[in-house]
TrEMBL record:
It comes from Bradyrhizobium iriomotense. Its main location: membrane. Transmembrane segments: none annotated. It catalyses: GTP + H2O = GDP + phosphate + H(+). PROSITE patterns: G_TR_1 (PS00301), G_TR_2 (PS51722). This is Elongation factor 4. Residues 7-191 form the Tr-type G domain. It holds the Pfam family GTP_EFTU_D2. It is an enzyme of class 3 (hydrolase). GTP binds at D19, H20, G21, K22, S23, T24, N138, K139, V140, D141. Its EC number is 3.6.5.n1. SUPFAM superfamilies: EF-G C-terminal domain-like, P-loop containing nucleoside triphosphate hydrolases. GO terms for molecular function: translation elongation factor activity. It is a peripheral membrane protein.
Length: 603
């Protein structure tokens, strides 16, 4: 494949809400430009979604890139670099780095569903990167499609001209050739100077068993050549480039990549941690003076403990997390121990879907059986001695007397919902201590902005939102700031022993309800022992809820035939004494299922 002049290169990404057809459109584009033959694509939907989980859930998790060659109607040969990005809010950092490497975006909107919350979030990110945007209406062949109404909606809500939006059906291929022409005529070519010093943006990196770390780059100026020595400006490390190439989606090696091109390099790098996403790569001998603006580092928002069900799996879990960390820079973990669950890790995630995906990948790819503790967020505590600390594990909370103030993170949530579910959506936000900021209408759909405390959202907000709106509401959020809150640490005591895996920070007004739900759930889950077991929820020394698991009773009078009643009474008294003693020394076995189920308790 020859390198085209820079004016014939187009770098673009596809942005859209989940399920509006990004990956399917990518498939059609690859097919129509001959990136893969019919046979290679046969029986395989979403070519770019390579992970099993992506295929099963029908979502994109990792951004992927492909280079396609296209001969336009004007007879010239063009090179397209296509980035397929995730649509889900938890993977917004994947979107941000793909957009930074492109000049334009195709905005895919479902012609029957219209603009959704994450369509907005992703478009705003594209506009922040000064992208030229081409609106594409997908699924126009569906009977429910209303293209004219949706065009108007794009103009009203996003504020971009949609009068010449391309009408397509990515599934059948209808209208896809028009998309290819629109890419040529409506998206700008990249800018760059071939004779300048090498300057390239590190877009992504992942670990390959045979090649070491594969680094995805966008060359801005200069030429990336095989055999040259390059330096990562962020870490200061220098490497010799072994391979240079691009994906068609298959790996193709070339001798060099020029300005404006997107491709990969390998340089015997051992750790993905050495290749910081957003770093600038330059020539080791004559480096450029200033770095390219990188991406915001991914900051974990939700934390939870992951413990192996079988203690012998701990080392396997450690190795598995190390491997996942190689491919997912936004996932962080540190070791922790728990009296109830043994050794495990405290992990940081970008959101609940991210947590779920990581858990599923650990159990699938590494065959691990895991328990996750209740998700929590980072709290900032101001102590009476003037110090400030951050805490994301309730167990580490200092003594109440030492705390002057606890601040919790708040988010701004944007929720789009059909009108008939608006009442129940507002009630849900109100119940979660939210305060409404604005309410506007987009056609027949309401768009609400709410300020909500993050700790109410991480628990099960997304599931509840989907159930009160029958799946029609869409939700997107970003962190705003920290605000003081009246939070208390609630502990669950089983037989007067605190179970640290179940302790949590809750708002004082919600503590009693949450505590009652927890103890009722635990009562059902802990099997009866030979003695009575009290289960209590407590804040400090004050018990706020209690349930009791009744004792199993062995029939000690079975061998007593006839005779005086005092004989039976004596045996029963003896049994009673024994149970009392047992309760002092007896150990309560809490089955692992009880932990898992209790942590899923629905408020």
């Amino acid at each position: 494949m020859t390198t085209a002049p820079i004016s014939n290169i187009r770098n673009f990404s596809i942005v859209a809400h989940i399920d509006h057809g990004k990956s399917t459109l990518a498939d059609r584009l690859i097919q129509m430009t001959g990136g893969l033959s019919e046979r290679e694509m046969a029986g395989k939907e979403q070519v770019l979604d390579s992970m099993d989980i992506e295929r099963e859930r029908g979502i994109t998790i990792k951004a992927q890139t492909v280079r396609l060659s296209y001969r336009a109607k004007d007879g010239k040969d063009y090179i397209f670099n296509l980035m397929d990005t995730p649509g889900h809010v938890d993977f917004a950092y994947e979107v941000s780095r793909s957009l930074a490497a492109c000049e334009g975006s195709l905005l895919v909107v479902d012609a029957s569903q219209g603009v959704e919350a994450q369509t907005l979030a992703n478009v705003y990110q594209a506009l922040d990167n000064n992208h030229e945007i081409v609106p594409v209406l997908n699924k126009v062949d569906l009977p429910a499609a209303e293209p004219d109404k949706i065009k108007q909606q794009i103009e009203d809500v996003i504020g971009i001209d949609a009068s010449d939006a391309v009408m397509i059906s990515a599934k059948t291929g209808l209208g896809v050739p028009d998309v290819l022409e629109a890419i040529v005529t409506r998206l700008p070519p990249p800018k760059g100077d071939r004779d300048a010093t090498l300057k390239a943006l590190l877009v992504d990196s992942w670990y390959d068993v045979y090649l070491g770390v594969v680094v995805l780059i966008r060359v801005v100026d200069g030429v990336m050549k095989k055999g040259s020595r390059v330096r990562m400006m962020g870490t200061g490390a220098a490497y010799d480039v072994e391979r240079v190439g691009f994906f068609t989606p298959k790996m193709q090696q070339v001798d060099e990549l020029g300005p404006g091109e997107i491709g990969f390099i390998t340089a015997a790098i051992k750790e993905v941690a050495d290749t910081r996403v957003g770093d600038t790569i330059t020539d080791d001998k004559k480096p450029v003076s200033e770095m390219l603006p990188g991406f915001k580092p991914a900051i974990p928002v939700v934390f939870c403990g992951l413990f192996p069900v079988d203690a012998d799996d701990f080392e396997t879990l450690r190795a598995a997390m190390g491997k996942l960390r190689l491919n997912d820079a936004s996932f962080s973990f540190e070791m922790e121990t728990s009296a109830a669950l043994g050794f495990g890790f405290r992990c940081g995630f970008l959101g609940l879907l991210h947590l779920e995906i990581i858990q599923e990948r650990l159990s699938r790819e590494f065959d691990l059986n895991l328990i996750a503790t209740a998700p929590s967020v980072i709290y900032k505590m101001k102590l009476t001695d003037g110090a400030e600390i951050e805490i994301h594990n309730p167990v580490d909370m200092p003594d109440v007397v030492k705390i002057a103030e606890i601040d919790e993170p708040w988010i701004e949530a944007t929720i789009l919902t059909p009108d008939e579910y608006l009442g129940s959506v507002l009630k849900l936000c109100q119940d979660r201590r939210g305060s409404q900021k604005e309410l506007t209408y987009v056609g027949s759909r309401a768009m609400v902005k709410y300020d909500l405390p993050l700790n109410e959202v991480v628990f099960d907000f997304y599931d509840r939102l989907k159930s009160v709106s029958k799946g029609y509401a869409s939700f997107d959020y970003h962190l705003t700031d920290y605000k003081p809150a009246d939070l208390v640490k609630m502990q669950i005591l089983v037989n007067a022993e605190p179970v640290d895996a179940l302790s949590m920070l809750v708002h004082r007004t919600r503590a009693e309800g949450r505590g009652r739900a927890m103890v009722e759930k635990m009562k059902e889950l802990i099997p009866p022992h030979m003695f009575q077991i009290p289960i209590q929820a407590a804040i400090g020394g004050k018990v706020i809820a209690r349930e009791t698991v009744r004792a199993l009773r062995k029939d000690v009078t079975a061998k007593c035939y006839g005779g005086d009643i005092t004989r039976k009474r004596k045996l029963l008294e003896k049994q009673k004494e024994g149970k009392k003693k047992m309760r002092q020394f007896g150990k309560v076995d809490i089955p692992q299922e009880a932990f898992i189920a209790a942590l899923k308790v629905d408020s």
